[in-house]
Amino acid sequence: MTRPLRQALLLALGLVAAATVSAADAELLFIAPANHTLPFVGLQDGVLQRGLLKDLGEAIAARLGRSARFVVMPARRVSAALQRGEADGLCYTTPQWLGGELGLHWSRPLFDYTGVVARRRDVPVLERLEQLAGEPLGTVAGYYYPEVERALGAGFARDDAPDMSLNLAKLAAGRTRYALTEQLTLSYAQREQPGQGLLPMLQTTHYPTYCVFSPRRGLPLKAVDAALERLVADGSLERLLARYR
Prior knowledge:
By secondary structure, the chain is of the alpha/beta class. The chain has two domains: 25-111 and 208-242, 3-Layer(aba) Sandwich (D-Maltodextrin-Binding Protein, domain 2); 113-205, Periplasmic binding protein-like II (D-Maltodextrin-Binding Protein, domain 2). It has helices at 3-25, 52-63, 78-84, 95-98, 146-152, 164-172, 183-192, 221-233, 236-242, and strands at residues 27-33, 42-44, 47-50, 67-73, 89-93, 105-106, 111-120, 136-140, 157-161, 178-182, 198-213. Strands 5, 6, 7, 8, 9, 10 and 11 form a seven-stranded mixed beta sheet that branches. Strands 1-4 form a two-stranded parallel ribbon.
């Protein structure tokens, strides 16, 4: 290989490498947990197509002058993936759900998780969680319900579904009489499928959720925090949430 040709080849390889780095720097890679469904995650052929997590990730990225990309993965892998820097971030989570703060960068509180017991229209209305002891309760595999476990103890009879929407589908079909779910999920189901006749009955818990980011990815974390502050302050986050209520 002649020297001019070698120099041209090295220059071309350098340009390709620079373009690859530039493309990586220009995007934010978010995780979409596979056991989430609408209104949070809408998958088609294993690819995130719509939902609140897509809207919020794109809004954060846009404020940083970047594009958003999403990787779908099982919930059990999320904590380790963030700790290893396999993705930039995840929204709609808490330290409790991930098993601790884990040395990750947590955002300000963004919107609340409100746990509820949902019922069908044709079943008795109960006033206390303790009345559900021994009653098969619709739940989601891999989800933990500490407040219900404390109230019911050995009387907590889980009836697991693979994801949130199938949990409510089982309830609507009469396979369970009551199900543990989240208010935004239930509100979305009531809006999209009013014929199911699902209603909230008891609130089980209420706490804030966050976005979390991996420090190992080299993100400008102060700029990320500032972008989220602006999304809250100018009403953009509330408008995103309103799409699914």
